[in-house]
Amino acid sequence: MKLGDLGEKNFIKRILNIIDEPRNLMKGDDAVDFKVKEVSFIIKADGFSFVSSKTPWNDYYDLGWKAVTSCISDLAVKGGRPIAVLASIGVLPSYEVEDGIKLIRAIRDASHFYSSMFLGGDTNNGEWVDVFCIGEEAKPISRKGANEGDPIFYIGELGLTGIAFQMMKRGKDLSSLINKEKVLEAIRRPKAFRLWEVNLDCIKASTDVSDGLAESLYNLAEANSLGIHLDFELEGQTAMEAIEKGLDIKEMLFYAGEEFGYLLAVNEECSKSFKDEVELRGGKITRIGVFKGNRVEVKWKGELLERRGWDNLISF
User: H helices within the chain, ranges in order?
Assistant: First the structure.
C-alpha cells in the first residue's frame, strides 16, 4: 500500500503506536508536554512543503511567517507560553539568495512577534520549512475534558481563508474584494491570538484549527465521545461578499484550512468573563455551539457535516 492510498490521518494513527506517551496531553494532540526537574514544557514541530502551501499571493517571507504561526497556534492552544523557536528549511540551489534570506527573516520576525527567541536550526536541499516551538507549560489543556452542555467558542475570524481559497479555485482575483487587505493578511501573514496572556482556568478542552474547521470539530467530538451542535451564522463583510459572489458558505466555513484559530470547550459559569478578557486583548471570539449527546457527530443548524479536512498526502 502507498501512503497516498492510506492518507495522512491513517498514517498518523499508525505512528501513534510507536511514539512515547506525553505527560498530560493526549497522544496525537496538537502538541506534547514533558517535565525536566521542576519545569514543565510544551513543544511542537510543524511545517509544510512549498508546493502544498505557497499560493499566488505568498512570497518566501510569507511562508516563513505562516510556518511560525502554525507552530505557535498549536503550542498556545495546549496552554503553552512560547519561549524559543528553531527551524529546518529546504531550499534549492536555483533559488535566489534573497528568497532564502526572506524566509529566515520572517521566521525571526514572527518568533519575536510571539515573544520568542529564534535560535537557528538546519538547512537542507528541498522545498519545505519545519518549525520547532518550545514553550513553558502555563496549564496543560488536552482535547479531552469537555462535558455535555459545555459551550464551544472559536477564537479567530471565520471565513477569511475560506473566501480566499474558494476564489483561487475559481480563478478569481482577490482585488475585487472590499475587505481584500484583511483577507490577504489572513493568508499571507496570519497572527495567532496570544492565548497564554488570558486566564486559562476556564478552558476545559481545546484544539487548534488549521486543517479545516469541520475536521477540528470532529477531533474535539471524538476525543470527548460527544456530539457537537453548531448554531452560528457567518456574519459581516465576509458573509456579504461571499453571497454576492455566489460562493459556497459551508465550504468556506468548514473546509478551508490554514485558519490558525482555536476551538475551546469552556466552563459555562465563567464563559462571559473569559469572552470579555479575550475581547479586551483584541481577540475575536464567537460562541458557535454546544456539546450535546453521546454520538460522535457534528451538526450545523441541524445538518450533519461531512468529516473532511486537509490531508498532506491526499489534499481535501
Answer: 3-6, 8-15, 50-53, 60-77, 97-113, 160-169, 180-188, 213-224, 236-244, 249-254, 271-280
